[in-house]
Specification:
Largest sheet: 8 strands, parallel
Number of helices: 13
Helix content: 25-40%
Strand content: 5-15%
């Protein structure tokens, strides 16, 4: 049954095929782009001397858990991940009015020029994808946060292209991409590095996104999931949620939100059940420790959580039940389409479960109003 309200999906995804890089990268770098090889077993992505099976775990929408598979062919992936017409059909099937779209991100390249160029290539691709229906498809662009001036230029270009928000790594990156074992470690940055978002160096960036009305997002936390290692995958998934508390705490305690009261920060796909705990814990420890650490804050941490911090969740009735606690009010439902955690095509059932007993006005705020206001619908 069609609901009598418009659902805004605060965290959905696109999965551009690896072949798009050769079209969107600068001409002199296209020969370095990933290419696809086929054999009887599956499709392979060939890039920088490595040959990897096409990973499908991020494109399982429409399959039951027992039918999930890690590898296969590009044709096995849900076509709504990269074909806007098919995406809009799937949104109609799932009763989704509009979706905020996160994506494939940059190339995990050890070539600094190629790495930086891949941000612009992806941002242009997602802007083109969203142009098919900009009222329903809301793109999020990516920046590396290596050089602040470079990132600001990228953000201004995104804004001109209609992109609604900007995604940054959990911690500032080094100026040289860090690759280990074929994994791009610098995508999440270095929590122990010499640069932190609390540094004055980043103040012009925060001022720019405020000027442009663009929320800043971090997708998952400070730790990635090791998809290729079955024994580590499930524990990693949990930690991708909880480690989001670290960059939030850094921004709060360093006074970034105090200096920039209009800055909107979004914790994406990390759940919200821990928001109330985090705010309560930060309040209590701040009261006791603020004097000797010379805290610059004039309000308790939960004040900044409620004013500046937002969070998306997929299936988190605990978080919904804690929505009236300090620090936990700015929460938004999402489908995670087409990833393996997606609620598609049963989103209405999941919404009914998560919001059982919730007053209608509050329910509509969490499934429509909050995300609609934040992302400029």
């Amino acid at each position: 049954m069609q609901p009598d309200y418009k659902i805004v999906d605060a965290d959905a995804h696109v999965n551009p095929p690896p072949t798009f890089w050769s079209e969107y990268l600068p001409a002199h770098l296209r020969e370095l782009a990933p290419r696809i090889e086929h054999d009887e077993e599956c499709d392979w992505v060939v890039f920088e001397g490595k040959r990897k099976k096409v990973n499908l775990i991020g494109a399982q929408a429409g399959r039951e858990g027992k039918d999930f598979k890690m590898h296969g062919r590009l044709s096995d992936a849900r076509s709504g991940g990269w074909m806007p017409g098919e995406r809009l059909k799937d949104m109609d099937t799932d009763h989704i009015h509009a979706a905020v779209l996160f994506g494939g991100g940059p190339l995990g390249s050890s070539n600094p020029e190629l790495y930086r160029a891949s941000f612009d290539a992806y941002n242009r691709w997602v802007a083109d994808f969203c142009s098919h229906d900009p009222k329903r498809l809301l793109g999020v662009g990516y920046v590396p946060m290596q050089g602040v001036d470079e990132s600001i230029a990228m953000v201004r270009d995104m804004h001109k292209r209609g992109i609604k928000a900007v995604n940054i790594p959990a911690f500032p990156q080094s100026f040289t991409p860090v690759v280990s074992g074929g994994q791009m470690l610098a995508l999440t940055g270095d929590p122990n590095g010499p640069r932190q978002y609390s540094d004055a160096e980043f103040d012009p960036f925060w001022q720019t996104v405020i000027e442009l009305g663009m929320p800043v997002t971090i997708h998952l936390g400070a730790r990635g999931a090791r998809f290729e290692q079955k024994d580590k995958f499930l524990p990693d998934l949990l930690m991708t949620k909880l480690t989001m508390a670290e960059p939030i705490a850094i921004l709060i305690y360093a006074g970034v939100f105090q200096r920039f009261p209009d800055l909107k920060f979004v914790s994406v796909e990390s759940g919200v059940g821990w928001f109330a705990f985090a705010a309560n814990y930060m309040d209590n420890t701040w009261k006791k420790q603020r004097h000797w650490v010379n805290s610059p804050l004039t309000e308790m941490p939960s004040f900044y959580m409620d004013r500046n911090v937002y969070g998306s969740f997929i299936n988190d009735p605990v978080g919904v039940s804690l929505r009236h606690w300090p620090g936990a009010k700015n929460i938004m439902w999402s489908s995670d389409y087409p990833h393996s955690e997606t609620t598609f095509p049963h989103s209405l059932e999941v919404i009914a479960h998560n919001f059982e007993g919730v007053p209608e006005e509050e329910k509509q705020w969490m499934i429509s109003g909050c995300a609609g206001k934040l992302f400029g619908l």
